[in-house]
From TrEMBL:
Its cofactor is FAD. SUPFAM superfamilies: FAD/NAD(P)-binding domain, Succinate dehydrogenase/fumarate reductase flavoprotein, catalytic domain. This is Flavocytochrome c. PROSITE patterns: PROKAR_LIPOPROTEIN. Keywords: FAD, Flavoprotein, Oxidoreductase, Signal. InterPro entries: FAD-dep_OxRdtase_2_FAD-bd (IPR003953), FAD-oxidoreductase_2 (IPR050315), FAD/NAD-bd_sf (IPR036188), Flavocytochrome_c (IPR010960), Succ_DH/fumarate_Rdtase_cat_sf (IPR027477). It comes from Niallia oryzisoli. Belongs to the FAD-dependent oxidoreductase 2 family. FRD/SDH subfamily. Residues 6-428 form the FAD-dependent oxidoreductase 2 FAD-binding domain.
């Protein structure tokens, strides 16, 4: 560890490591400080994939998409409240972000669909596995290859400034060893506050008692540090509750399961909502059930296409039956009703017409391949859409809308892009697009000093 770096990056999740790689490529000498014992943050838990439009992989696979469509669907999902400049920048740079990842050996060429979109746009690893682990592994490898220093157990407590300019951080190593590091710029990539129950309950008392899918380092530190320097926040009460979380282990069951064809049924063995609706609407539908939980039901075909299911099985989340009746027994739902539900659904798939709930996507395959499976799920705190206000240069803005010199932020710590509801797959897109931008723009700032 040195006393001085060009750029200090706080947080070794997807946004922080991406920013570090771009800063290094721009000739900078950055350092990454991570408070947990390992790198990865919530990024390593992300499952669905990375949304991007007009990508080379979509073109290769004959998927017709456009940046405008991506923009419109994200805006609709966010209830029209997304920051329009941020959203425009995001969609327009999404394909380049996929190319950049490919250029550093991180290939996301297996494309699926998540709730709230009309075409396959969610890019995941070739083998269809969850995106997070793969992405983090690839980024860590690159960070090592580029010899970017990354310190774990390095908890940043304060961002320092002099004469209105950010000039470094105060950090505590291994819980005891306090150090001051100076720099010309600081990039805050500390993630969200989905594991900070005090902060959540302050803005959303109605979420008391919910489980969280977040890693324990997601405590909103970056937000409070930035507020102390005059930064502002937006949408802090917009907290995404994910509809499909295994409750006992607070473990997210990825949207890919529905994206590859699963349905949701209630305790009566009946469907109750369009499974591919946006996360907020599916959550509301589950919360409206008397039991406030539901079952994801799928067949061996879904299991083979959504690789993440192997992990869920290993963790003991799945129940299984060679027939629908046998599955119903394991689930404790009426067998005849579950059978009718599946027959009706399979007809809807064949006729491409879900007369009951109007689902129009992820209907390519009927659920007919034994064995059959189910996973019991309920809602859990998943993502904090709000956060600090930045512009498309990732400069942190004060209450007058002016950049705070030397202070940059990217990733879940920022607010505005997602508006009131994040579309699954957009956060991985966000950390790469804006992480890159933070690396590039902070380097420009440092060079101009
Ligand atoms: P993003 O998706 O925006 O990159 P992640 O949750 O993946 O966010 O990563 C954020 C990282 O920042 C996590 O690994 C988290 O432990 C780390 N972090 C949070 N607060 C601090 C802090 N005060 N000092 C150092 N690292 C922090």
């Amino acid at each position: 560890l040195k006393d001085n770096y060009d750029i200090v990056i706080i947080g070794a999740g997807g946004a922080g490591m991406t920013a570090a790689l771009e800063a290094k490529a721009a000739g900078m000498n950055p350092v990454i400080l991570e408070k947990m014992p390992i790198a990865g943050g919530n990024t390593s838990k992300s499952s669905s994939g990375m949304n991007a439009s007009q990508t080379k992989f979509q073109t290769e696979q004959g998927i017709q998409d456009s940046n405008d469509k991506f923009y419109e669907e994200t805006l609709k999902g966010g209830k029209g409240t997304n920051n329009p400049e941020m959203l425009r920048f995001f969609v327009d740079n999404s394909a380049a972000a996929i190319d950049w990842l490919d250029s550093i050996g991180i290939r996301l060429n297996n494309i699926t669909i998540t709730g709230g979109m009309s075409v396959e746009r969610t890019h995941r690893p070739e083998d269809g596995s969850a995106v997070g682990q793969y992405l983090v592994k690839g980024l860590v490898t690159n960070v090592q290859e580029q010899q970017i220093p990354l310190f774990v157990n390095a908890d940043v407590k304060e961002i320092t400034e002099k004469d209105g300019k950010v000039n470094g951080v105060k950090v505590v190593f291994n819980g005891t060893d306090e150090k001051t590091i100076t720099s010309k710029a600081v990039i805050v990539a500390t993630g969200g506050f989905g594991a900070n129950f005090d902060m959540i309950e302050k803005v959303r008392p109605d979420l008391a008692g919910y489980v969280t899918t977040n890693q324990e380092g997601s405590t909103g530190d970056g937000i409070s540090m930035i507020e102390k320097l005059g930064g502002t926040t937006v949408d802090m009460d917009q907290i995404q509750v994910h509809p499909t979380v295994q409750q006992e282990k607070s473990y997210l069951i990825g949207e890919v399961v529905r994206g590859e064809g699963a349905i949701l049924v209630n305790a009566e063995g009946k469907r109750f909502h369009n499974e591919m609706d946006t996360r907020d609407n599916v959550t509301a539908a589950i919360n409206a059930l008397p039991e406030k939980n539901a079952w994801l039901v799928f067949d061996s075909g879904v299991k083979s296409r959504a690789k993440a299911i192997e992990q869920y099985e290993k963790m003991g989340f799945t129940v299984q039956g060679d027939t629908i009746e046998a599955l119903a027994e394991k689930m404790g739902v009426p067998a005849a009703d579950l059978k009718t539900t599946l027959d009706t659904w399979n007809n809807a798939v064949t006729n491409k017409n879900d007369a009951e709930f109007g689902r129009t996507t992820a209907m390519d395959n009927a659920l007919t391949g034994a064995p059959y499976y189910a996973i019991k799920i309920g809602p859990g705190i998943h993502y904090t859409m709000g956060g600090v206000v930045i512009n498309t240069n990732t400069e942190v803005l004060n209450k007058d809308g002016q950049p705070i010199p030397g202070l940059f932020a990217a990733g879940e710590v920022t607010g505005g892009l997602h508006g009131q509801n994040r579309i699954g797959g957009n956060s991985v897109g966000e950390i790469i697009v804006f992480g890159r931008q933070a690396g590039v723009k902070s380097a420009e700032f440092v060079k101009a000093q």
